[in-house]
Each structure stands twice: as C-alpha cells, then as structure tokens.
Amino acid sequence: MPKPLFNPVENLHFDAKTCFLTGTDLDKEESISVFPEWILDRFSLRDKRFKMLDRVTGIQYQDIQLPCSEEVRKALDSLEEEIHAAFTKGHDDVKKIPEERLFQWMGKIVYGVLYNDLCLEISRALQRAKGKEFKLSPLLKERFGMFHLMLQSLITPVEFKGIKPWSICIVKLKYSRDTFNYKDEPMNLNFSLGMNGFGIIACLQDNGIVGNHQKQIINKIGEKVLHPIQFEELCARFLYANYLLKYRSKYNIQTGEEKIIIESILPEEKGGQLFAPWDDNMFAQVLAGYWEPWGFAKNDIITPPDSPISFLENDYTYEFIEPESISLPY
C-alpha cells in the first residue's frame, strides 16, 4: 500500500529534522548532499561555491544538504550507484538508463537546490520584517508540490501512465572526463549537464511538450558528437522554449492500494498556441549567457532584423552544422 503522501510545499514545511521526501521526523539532524558525493570528489567541488537562485548568494557545494531519513538514504544510495556506473562509462550507457531513474536523479538535485533556495528566502523574509511570512504563488505551489509527488517514486510505487511528465534529451558531446558543466533553473524545473562525452538536457515537468517542440533539431543532431558551443545553444533553446510554454501542466492522480498512478493530460488540439511568440531578441540575450565562455555578447549574436546566429543550423539552408567545421576552442 502506498505511503501517506507528504507535501511540504503546501505549508512551506522545510525543517532540518523532517525528511525532505517522506515527512518523517528525524531523531537528529541527518542529511545528505544534494550533489552526489562522487561528483564532489571527482571534480573537486566541495569547497567551490554554487550560486543560488538570486545569482548573488554563494554556498559551498558540500553545504547544500537535504534532511533525509534512513529509508530515503538507502533508496538514493541505490540510485546513485546505478547512475555513477553509467556516467563513468559514458554516452552509450547513459542512454540505457530508464528515463524514470534519470528523472529521479536529476529531480533530487533540482529539488535539493530549490529546497535550499526556499529556506534561504524564508529566512530572509523573517529577517526583513519580523513575523512576516514568505509566500509562494498558487501556481508555484502546485508545480513544486506535483514535482515533489513525482519524486516520491523513489520510495513508493508510482506508475507514470502514458506520456511522461518530462522531456529528456541525451546527446554525444566533445567533453573530457575532467569537465563537469551543470546548470539548472529551479523555477521552471530545467536541468542540464555536460560531462565525460555526453550531455543531458531536461525539462522536468513539461509533459514532453518542449522536447517535441525541439524534435526537429534533435533529429538533425542524431549521433553527431556536438561541439560544446552547440550543446550550449541546445540548452538555451530548451530553457527558452520552456519559459515560453503557456500550457499549464496537468495530471490525473489515482491513489490505489498498491500504487499511485500519475497520468499527464495533454492539451487539446484546437489551434491554440502552446507557446508564447518566440522573440529573437530575448533568445539572443539567453544565448549570450550560455555563450559567455567564448566571449559572445548579445550584440555579437543578433543584428536586427536578422535572426540570431546559430552553430547548430545554417542560417540559409537550415542544414545541421558539422561540429568539425567549428573552429572555436573546446
């Protein structure tokens, strides 16, 4: 029988002695690292600072923690062992990971960062005005609460029926074993990671709509080994498309005696626009953030009325640009 459902987002119940996933009271403050221990060690990240959502506050990677029960710790240890083995081998093994397991792994990191962001904002609100509560909009409460429910598939039987609630794209990437390039955007549940010859991009609660929107370029990429600047452009496309997504993800939830069934509800095909209009000027601004390592500013990327430059598609023929033809450094 499924365990009682815990939703900490509804009442912003984030406490160091409450398990983040189950709501179990902890006898003492027990926690796990949001970023896996093997990643912290492999890429020497423990003492490095991670920028939080406000893009100002920096917290050492090793200090980004989640309160965790022993039951959840064991489930995460098993997941981590599976992911670690595949990630160490590279792209082909990563592609074999069941999407649900990959979602759980990515979701724990994104939720963990979000959890710490919310704790930070709650603390600041109390400091700014004594007794004043921090509040989330109803939309964000619904989004984050549903995300938390999906993560409970780690420790309780959950069936994702029909279309999966996420978009996940895995590509080959010209990255060495020593590169770890992680980005997230917790408000819209975006995730990207490049390392060891592969890249992963995910929108963790879009009901597959963004992935379908980007299907044409994904098909053009196929098995090509992307230049890093091409991967960053693909990440920017996913993030911006998810930002423009107007459809509010909806689900049918059935709680039975043996499992929870989560079914994505797709929008009806009635000619309505799923996305707000694509703004080349705004996309160029997003792209500039991703292309900063190569020295590109927004004005280098777009000169109105022309479209933004691309390293994925030829501006005139729309054919895929071969990675080997790009002379920029890796």
What are the main properties of this structure?
330 residues, five-stranded mixed β-sheet, alpha+beta, 12 strands, 10 helices, single chain, three-stranded mixed β-sheet, 17% strand
The fraction of residues assigned to DSSP E strands is: 15-25%
Silhouette? globular
Question: Mind describing the biggest β-sheet?
Answer: 5 strands, mixed
Reading the helices and strands in chain order gives EHEEEHHHHEEEEEHHEHEEHH
Global Rg:
20 Å
What is the total tally of β strands? 12
Order of strands, main sheet, comes to 7-8-9-6-10
Q: What do these coordinates show?
A:
The chain is of the alpha+beta class. The protein has one domain (31-325). Helices cover 36% and strands 17% of the residues. It has ten helices and twelve strands. It has helices at residues 37-42, 70-89, 91-95, 99-128, 138-151, 209-213, 215-221, 228-244, 280-290, 298-301; strands spanning 31-33, 49-51, 58-60, 65-67, 158-161, 167-173, 180-185, 190-195, 198-203, 225-226, 250-255, 260-265. A five-stranded mixed β-sheet has the order 7-8-9-6-10, sandwiched between helices. Strands 5-12-11 form a three-stranded mixed β-sheet, with no helix packed on it. β2 (49-51) and β3 form a beta hairpin. It is globular and about 60 Å long. The protein starts with 30 loop residues before the first strand and ends in a 29-residue tail after the last helix. The mean pLDDT is 93.
